[in-house]
Amino acid sequence: MKAIILCFVPLFVAVDVIGILPMFLNLTEGIATEKRRQIIIQSVLTAAAVAILFVLVGPSIFRLLNISVADFMVAGGMLLFIIALRDMLSGEKSHRYGDLATLGAVPIGVPLITGPAVLTTSLLLYNQHGALPTFTALVTNIFFAGVVFWFADTITRILGNAGTKTMSKIASILMASIAVMMIRKGIIAIIAQAVIK
Fold this sequence. Notes:
mainly alpha
């Protein structure tokens, strides 16, 4: 249970569902309720499938390229830090529009829900805590994002525009902190490997 919680929190921050909520509303503006719900289901299934596949295939690619987990922690941490910094300094997160038939898959499922931050965090957590805690936390977070999108209009009215932006900035700060932790652990692991050799 503890491992699941340790996986859930970083992934919750990485998904940042409150931060991407305005973009979801923007992308689905004017779409009928029934069609919007189909898009949400499509987005959740796509996001989960892509994230799980990446976690399962990623380590094999690393072995092929002779990349260690420590290397990936440093690189992934730097990437997360840049994403967090960009989100903190910019007015809103960048996004692109897609065709209505595939809107749930691209861009909402990928890269809006499952973007670089989620993929990087998932792979690192998989190496630290194993498959069950990581996949449980991953699927739970993606499902939660779907629930938030399902009740998007109500949540936005409660939080307001300022509240939504504030929550997004807080999530970005937490993501930056997690990124620094990943870089620190990666550097320590690299030094330890060098000393052993």
